[in-house]
Amino acid sequence: MKVFFISSFIALFFLFSSVLFSCVLIVYEDSHALFIDSTTDHGKIEVLREILPNTFCILNEDVNLIGYSFHKSEEYSLESFYTNFKEFFFQFKTGERKKVKLISEKPLILEDEEGMVYFQPEGTPIFPGKPSIDEKNYIILNLKNSNESRSLKYCYMIKGLSWSSENDLYMLNNETAMLFSKFILKSSISEELKDVDLYLLSGNVRVPEKHEMRMMYKFVDAEEKEKGGPGVSEIGKGYNLYHAGKVEILKPHDEIFISNFSGKVNVRRKFIFHNLSSDFSNVFLTLQLIKLPFNLPKGNLRIFEFKEGLPVLIGWVENDRVSKGGDLELIYGRSEKLVGRKVILSEERISKKLRRRRMEIELKNYKKEAVKVEVVEWIPTTSKLHVEDGIKYERRSSTEVVFHVEIPANGERKFEYEIEYSY
CA–CA separation, 276 vs 376, rounded Å? Predict the structure, then answer.
C-alpha cells in the first residue's frame, strides 16, 4: 500500500490531523476524486456536509452501533427518512441516545446534531486494493486477505482534482507512426498530495435523482448520456479504469504530466467521402490507428508529419476512448485535390408502399497519382441495393453502405447505384 499525507485541508474530514495512511486515489474527469483509506480505526469521522451524500461505504466489525427498528404501526420506511432528511433517535451500545439524521441506509450513515457522522457497514463494502466496477456499476476494491476486514475501510469524494489526456502522433511513413500518450492530473485544492496510488476513471458520473437511494455515485455510458438515456449502462460498458501508478507529489493548484504510452503504432491513411450532396465537396483526410497496443483514453490528439526533418502539425482532433487491441479512425482535415458529389438521376413510385431511387456518384482526382477512396452512403433501413458492375462495396449495417473506388491520376470516376425502399 502507498502512503498519503493529509494536512489541514483533509483534516476537516477527520478527528485527527496530519495523519499518514494507506490510500488509493481515483480521479474522475469532472473534477471529483474518490479517496479510499485502509488504516483508520475510528468509528466516527467529522466531515463536511457537502461531501457526505453519495460517497461513503464502510466496513468495520467493531463500530459501536446497534441495529435499528420501527414500530409495526408506523408507515415510515428508512428510505422515506432518508429522502426527507428527517430526524429520529438512535440508541448506541453504550446506552447513549442521540437525535440523528439518516444519511444513507446501506451502508448505514447517521449524522448527529453536532455534525458527527457514524457508520454501520451494510451492503457491498469497499476494500483497499485494485479498483474495479461491479455488476451494479459501483466502484469496488478487491479484499486482499481476511485480516483486513477487522479495520475500518471507508471512501469519500471531494472536488478539486481532475484529469485529461493528451496524445501526439508523429507520422514516420504511410504505415507507421510514433504515438506519445500522457495523462494530465490537475489540482485546484490548497493542500499538497504525496505518495498516492493513482487510478483515473474514464466515464460519466450520473448523480441519482432525489427519489433514489443516494448510496454511491453511479455511472452511465457516454453514449447513453448523449442520447439522453435514463439508466445505468450494462456491466463495465462505457468505462475504463487506468492505473497511472504512484504519484510522489502533487503541489497545490498545480498540474503534472504522467506518461501513459510511447511507442510505434500501425496506421493507414484513408480518403473518405461521407454522404455526398449535389454540390462538389472535398474528401476527408482520415487516419486509422490499427490494433492499438494500449488503452487510449478519450482526449486530444495532435498529428505531425515530418517535412525536411522538422515535425509539422497537420491536424488536431478529439479522439474517442479505445480499448487495447481496438482501432481508432481520425478525421483530421480535407484535401482540395479530391472532390466528389452525388446526383439523383431518377426517383419513382413502383407500388403503393415502395419507391425506387437511382443515384450517380461523380469523383474527381487532381493528384498526379491514382488514389483509392471510400464513399460512405446512408440509405433507408428497408432498402434493397443494386450497384453497378465492377464497383466493390460492403453493407456495414442496414443503413450504411461503403463503396471502394479507385480514381485514376488527374482523372475522374463515375458509377451508379439504385435503392428500393418502403415508405
Answer: 8
Query: What is the overall mean pLDDT for the chain?
Result: 70
DSSP E strands, 51-175: 87-91, 97-104, 108-112, 116-120, 131-133, 139-141, 154-159, 161-171
d(CA 235, CA 138) in angstroms, rounded, equals 10
The residues that bridge with 10 in the sheet, in sequence order, are none
The x, y and z cell numbers of residue 232, run together, are 445505468
CA distances from 259 to 16, 250, 262, 407 (A): 35, 15, 8, 42
- Residue-wise pLDDT for 19-39, tens only, equals 223 467 777 776 767 666 554
The C-alpha cell at 202 is: 474514464
pLDDT in tens, 356-375: 999 999 999 999 999 999 99
DSSP letter assigned to residue 152: -
Please tell me the distance from the alpha carbon of residue 179 to that of residue 294, in angstroms, as a whole number. Answer: 11
Q: Exposure of 80 by Cβ count < 10 A (0-12 exposed, 13-18 middle, 19+ buried)?
A: exposed
**Whether the model pTM is above 0.70:** no
Q: What is the pairing mode between strands 240-250 and 32-37? A: unpaired
